[in-house]
Each structure stands twice: as C-alpha cells, then as structure tokens.
Design a protein that fits this description.
This protein has about 325 residues and is α/β, with parallel strands linked by helices. The chain has helices spanning about 10-20, 20-35, 40-45, 65-80, 100-105, 130-145, 155-160, 180-185, 190, 205-220, 245-260, 260-290, 295-305, 310-320, and strands at about 55-60, 85-90, 115-120, 150-155, 170-175, 195-200, 230-235. It has 14 helices and 7 strands. It binds guanosine-5'-triphosphate (GTP) and magnesium ion.
Length: about 325
C-alpha cells in the first residue's frame, strides 16, 4: 500500500483502486476531474470493469434534506452488507451555501469505514448540466467495485434533470414548504422521478403534498415507465423515519428495470452519450487549436468582413479538422 502512486502506470492505478486502495482511487478521480491527457488511457484501463454498480440519484430543492437522506441510505446499505460510494455534485453552488462543511461533518461517521467512499465534485458542465467528468468519475467508482453509487445533485435547473443521464434510479426529495406541487411539474421533476420522498414529514402539510403528488402521478401518463408509477413515500431523514422503505423502493425499482429491459436501454443511452461527450470534447479542443492557427485567424477576419458566413467558416474548419 506504500507504492509511490505518481510513478505507476494507469492500469496499475486502476488495479490498485480495485483492490481497495483508496489513495489510488482518489488519485484516479483527481486525474479525471482535471481532464488531463491521461484521461483517455485511464478510461481505457477501467472501462472493462464497469457495469456492475447500481447508481441512485438524489435530487430536489436546496435544503430538502438530500445529504441527510444519503447519509441514512449509506448506513442502511452498509448494514445490509453492501459497499457504497457517494458523489456530491457542485456543493460549492451559491444555492447550497456551506454544504461542503455540513456534508463532511454529517458523513464523518463513515470516514473510517473502508466500505464507504465519499467525494465532493465542484464540477459543472459547460451548459449547466452534469459534466462529462462527473460521469467518468462514476465509471471509476463502478470499476473500483462499489455495489452502490449515490449521486447527490444540488437542485438547480439542468443539473437536476441531467441526473437522468447518470442514475439508474432517480429519487426526488421534496419538502412540504417547498411550494406547491405545480413547481414539480414546471421543473420537469415529474418526468425524471422514479421515486418521490416527501421529506421533513414532521412538518405540517406533508400529507397534502403527498396527496397532490399522487394525484399528479395518476394523471400523468408516461409510457416509458412501463408500469412503474413512482411511489410517494414520507420520510424524516434526520430521525431516520421511512428511510428503510425508501431504500427498499430504490431496490425494487432496480429489479423492475432489470426485468423489463429498461436497464439495458438506459445503459445503451448512457454509453452513447459518453461517446458523444468524448467527441464534443475532442471537437472543442481541435476547434480551439484551429482558431489560433493562421488559417483560423484568416477565416475569422473574413467572417468579420462579412465575406464568409459563420456556416461557411464552420464548414471550412470542419474540413480541416476531419
Ligand atoms: N425537520 C426536519 N429537518 C430535516 C429533515 N431532514 C433534514 N433536515 C434538516 O434540513 C437541513 C438541510 O439538510 P441537508 O441534508 O443539508 O439538505 P440538502 O438537500 O442536502 O441541502 P443542499 O445540499 O444544501 O441542497 C439540515 O439542517 C437538516 O438537519 C427532516 O426530515 N426533518
Ligand atoms: Mg446536500
């Protein structure tokens, strides 16, 4: 375990991480986060080991109790003998002020447990969605042998919806005071939720929100669910009420998607998306270098002089980049 990690090959790093070496895993993730030249080789070394973990997403409005719930889910899955990795996305977001510290303190009880690994990622994609790096970090955790990977996303816009491109099971946490259920419709949460948890159910109006959600689910017809209407559960994460039922609902959803073939469809979609992300990243890098070349500068000059249209410039560049 004392190997100098800076000296070893990428495949050795992956292999150490798979043996449970957390320093190797941390290094692997940092490299992926940095988008270094090494990423291609690293993903090449770990890809064959992916595809075994169940990925659960936890999303919902800021302060809904996602981290508290994730903390309980870790405890329950550990008690059932599973290993668990957690990725908290974008905890530095202004919407979640101070959450990094909060999460660290709350989840500290798991720090000495070798079956738990927790990582915060301050990465956000170029268009506000989940970044390419985030998806590859999940791949690295999957390849490292974790049974479950829990992803917490701060409930802000696109990141919230993008969890669908990463998680097999999406759990949306709401709180009674988060406003009426119309907000759920507007935010597109109805389409992404496999399970609703009405957290802070110790507060008044929890039952009202549960009723409204059930009504909306009854009205919404979503063929892609294949007979899986999202259950609405009442939870109180701080006192661990309803949390076993939430874990059971996630496990049941996992079994449902395996049985119906939806899991295979999701895996295909996720991988196609990964290839698209790789292509986009390559194109962007290639574009940036083309722009600084003499030809690139000349094309931009002609664009400014209106001798060429943006499409003509794009065509000229893509011809060169192909
Ligand atoms: N009353 C009550 N408070 C809760 C419950 N669950 C969580 N909280 C509290 O709500 C606050 C926010 O909880 P977090 O778990 O940090 O919420 P979060 O959704 O992760 O927040 P962000 O990551 O900042 O979006 C904390 O003070 C929790 O103790 C609950 O069931 N009932
Ligand atoms: Mg949180």
């Amino acid at each position: 375990m004392t190997a100098d990690l800076s000296q070893i090959s990428h495949s050795e790093l992956v292999s150490l991480s798979r043996q449970g070496n957390r320093a190797a895993l941390a290094r692997l993730i940092s490299k992926i986060e940095r988008r270094s030249q090494d990423t291609e080789e690293l993903i090449g070394a770990l890809f064959q080991h992916t595809g075994n973990a169940q990925v659960w997403g936890f999303t919902g409005p800021p302060g809904a109790g996602k981290s508290t719930a994730v903390d309980q889910v870790i405890r329950i899955l550990r008690a059932r003998g599973h290993s668990v990795a957690v990725v908290a996305i974008d905890p530095s977001s202004p919407f979640t002020g101070g959450a990094i510290l909060g999460d660290r303190i709350r989840m500290q009880q798991h720090a000495s447990d070798p079956g738990v690994y927790i990582r915060s990622l301050a990465t956000r994609g170029r268009h506000g969605g989940l970044s390419h790096a985030t998806k590859e970090v999940v791949m690295a955790l999957d390849a490292s042998g974790f049974d479950f990977i829990l992803v917490e996303t701060a409930g802000v816009g696109q990141t919230e919806l993008d969890i669908l491109k990463l998680a097999h099971t999406v759990c949306v946490l709401l709180v009674p005071e988060s406003g009426d259920s119309i907000q759920v419709m507007k935010a597109g949460l109805m389409e992404i939720a496999d399970i609703f948890a009405v957290n802070k159910s110790d507060r008044p109006e929890a039952d009202k929100l549960v009723r409204e959600l059930m009504l909306m689910i009854g009205l919404a017809e979503n063929a892609s669910r294949r007979g899986h209407a999202p259950p609405v559960l009442k939870t109180e994460a701080v006192r661990s009420q309803g949390m076993d039922a939430l874990v059971d609902a996630c496990i049941e959803h996992g079994a449902h998607i395996r049985k119906t073939g939806l899991l295979a469809e999701k895996q295909t979609e996720f991988l196609a998306e990964e290839v698209f992300d790789v292509l986009s990243e390559q194109l962007r890098i290639s574009f940036v270098s083309s722009m600084s070349s003499d030809t690139g500068k000349q094309l931009i000059k002609e664009l400014l002089e209106k001798k060429l249209s943006p499409y003509q410039v794009a065509n000229a560049l893509s011809g060169r980049m192909a």
